[in-house]
Amino acid sequence: MKLSGPAIPEKWQPAYEAHLQALESKVAVVAAWLLLITVFIYQFSHPLRNIHSSDLLGFEFLFRSPVILASIVTLLGHYSGSFRWPSRYFLRAMGLSVMAMILSMLMLYLTSNSAGLYQISNGLVISFFGVSVLAVRGLREWILLFLLPLGLFAIAAVSLGIAFTDVLPLFFDPLVMMVIGIIVMEALRRVLTSEFEARQTLGEMAATDQLTGLLNRRAIWPLLNHELQHAQRAGTPFSLILGDLDLFKKVNDTYGHDAGDLVLQETARRLEGALRRQDALCRWGGEELLILLPDTDSTGALEAAEKLRASMADSAITAGDHRIHQTISLGVASFQHGDDIDAVVSRADEALYRAKHKGRNRVEVAGSGNAMPPVSY
To answer: Quick one: three-class SS letters along 207-233?
Structure first.
């Protein structure tokens, strides 16, 4: 098994990290409650387990107190929201405190020659399996949670003169349960990762145009609304560019729809290459495209639109045996106070009409001229 687990495509990494954090948050809360309940049960159930070494109860509680503290802090952080640390830190704290507790208690019973090693061995089994469940992120977490405490325990045992032949039999069952826990959790993690990838794939299919791979009209609306809310709240600009391929119907009629599809795909590739990473490109409908430019005023949007126009006009598109000189007309509109998305799109559409009317293969900015009559696209 790879330490990093299943590979996640780079484009899904932020969503996968959020998925892991949500899972870790749920595991942390459940684990914290279980640890609190279990620790108190074991602290006060010695007679039920035929353990009467009351002289060690104080030490046992001292060793259990870090587990109690880690669990309480985890629950306070979850329910109050007062701690902003990632949940994996709470999981590590609980896992390390459990390992420190059970190994310290084992050392206590070994050095004091007290009865109860059988019960401690049972505690080791439960603790090792439980800690393996806390490592949601996989083998790297298990290395931290198991190798570090066990290494410190081995050093302490050697320094105290404890023979390994006295200790190893106590670790056989716990180590078996640790391996089982690791295998089970790794398998579960891979299943959850596969389900995540399946959901992302389905979501991407629903959000993208199958021909061009661009966002579809439905998928870009949340981005548009988010940018609108940000602009209204922070006063930042944003712009929209509405583009339409010039005389595209003629391409389909002359060269066929397969060639038209290739033109659309190449158009998407060229426009994406001319945009910034934060911009969003959408197939608005047919041969019409919408571009969202966050944090961009009208001047910046005009420059971006000219770059898009040039990316189409400067070289022909190869479609089979044909070289097609495909151009695009673009209308630019920027957000103004009081606008909704429909208003910005409408102004961009009007600017696009002017670009078509003035000869195509050009850029027009909303508000720079009078409305023009419709023309054939």
So the answer is: HECCCCCCEEHHHHHHHHHHHHHHHHH
234: its two tokens:
């922070």
Q: Work out the burial of residue 341: count CB atoms within 10 Å of its CB; fewer than 13 is exposed, 13-18 middle, 19 or more buried.
A: middle
Is the pTM above the cut of 0.90?
no
Instruction: Locate 340 and state its tokens.
Output: 């909704």
Q: Any idea which residues carry the catalytic annotation?
A: 287
Please give the pLDDT value at position 113.
Answer: 66
From the list 374, 334, 336, the residue with the least C-alpha distance to 355 is 374
Sign of the Cα pseudo-torsion (263, 264, 265, 271, in order): positive
Whether the Cβ atoms of residue 109 and residue 152 lie closer than 8 Å to each other:
no
Report the alpha-carbon angle 171-177-181, nearest 5.
Answer: 140
- For residue 285, is it left (φ>0), alpha (ψ between -120 and 50) or beta? left
- What are the structural domains of the chain? 10-206 (no CATH), 215-365 (3.30.70.270)
Most confident option among 11-20, 114-123, 308-317: 308-317
- Yes or no: say if 83 and 73 are a contact pair by the CB < 8 Å rule: yes
